[in-house]
Amino acid sequence: MDDNASAPGHAPIRLDPSRGLRIAIVGAGFSGIGMGAHLKRAGFENFVILDRGADLGGTWRDNHYPGCACDVPVRLYSFSFAQSGDWSRIYGGQAEILAYLRRCAERFGLAPHFRFNADLVSAAWDDAECCWRIRLADGRSVEADVLIGGWGGLSNPALPDIPGLGHFAGPSFHSARWDHSVDLAGKRIAVIGTGASAIQFAPEIAPQAGHLAIFQRTPPWIIPKPDRETTPLERLLYRLLPPARSLARAKVYAQLESRALGFVVNPKLMKAAERIAHRHLARSIADPALRDALTPRYTMGCKRVLISNDWYPMFNRPNVSLVTAPIERIEPSGIRSADGTLHEADVLILGTGFQVNDYALPFTITGRAGLDLGEFWRDGPAAHLGTTVPGFPNLFLLMGPNTGLGHNSMIYMIESQIGYVIRALAALRRRHARTITVREDRFRRYNAELARKMHKTVWETGCRSWYANRAGKVTALWPGFTFQFRRRVKRLDPQDYDFA
Fold it and tell me: How far are the Cα atoms of 210, 361, 408, 450 from residue 379, in angstroms, in the given order?
């Protein structure tokens, strides 16, 4: 690996302008690795992949809590151009997915391009020089013609706005910053949150806890997880017959994509899935009062649908309790709920998700004429095809606004956007242009279309979720089938852009 890949310092990270477009990618997760692989395929070798961490992996590096796994079958939650026949389970675990990403980086020769411990502070567009001037937290700088954001939407933990959060006397941490040095055996553990992370780690730590209290604001919809180990015969077949891998992948894609009918076509179709979830709950919980407390009261899909076989059975354990009273404040010795009860705890774990909407960017992105991206997004993040923003030349976003999914694999969307970025860069090269900027009228027309389509979806049926901002605008999700998005980005319409 390049000596500059991980060593901090104040020397600039140099990209040679004689080698073509200088490209800086921010983020070394699925987006950054996939983008790097496709850049090399397309003949763009002059790039760096910056990441604030000490290693690649993004989400799958940072989230290493007990039970961490993908909630999409891993055969589809992997690159279509780098399929593996060696997955040990239908739903891949964190360590296995991280190992897969490392193999991909090695396979596509990305090691010389990584620059770790490279925490982005700011990126400012220099209109005179037609380049991005990038500053890192350790004082290093980068000058690039193109900036590609692969930092993802689920990268910055969200801390709850609860009085006294910093006053808790015992160990306290977010699930995305799991502290493995804390011994949980026999401890009174309080978990705030019942989202996708909590339903994975809580059942894992329940057997060793002295007592585990789960603080629930809104019960999630949970369906059974059809997980199992893959057989030796399956793994042999997938290794020897790549078409078998592709066929299995296509089958999973079709199964998941069919769910979009209830998400984006007719939310009433979610009733069938709700019945499955109700049966799953009824089979797991005999106590009618507890079952009622765990029953959602909103249309399935309005919040993220979760999969688990051990979340509900966990509440049958004598050392696990569900707290539904609102939290009033956190005290040194525990959590005080609104009914006046002090729930004493030795350890506090926050399963409170990530900052997606209504937050300040953790860095500053400045476009033409000093336009600040955070200010431009004050009413919620927005982009053209989830990828480009007016006033920000040569800036491309992966997993950008309105590209998230409630039913299928984000890797499919990432690959779709990567192809679009490659086409944009090819257009720059073909036209001998220095800049490409989306036209504001095309940007606004596209987002108006999204808003109209969003009204028909399950995400606007009246619940509160991280999919929407405080004003209720859904900025995280794509209101259609994934193949429709891929069709939209299959070609780059030059009339959408100004070239200079």
Answer: 45, 13, 27, 15
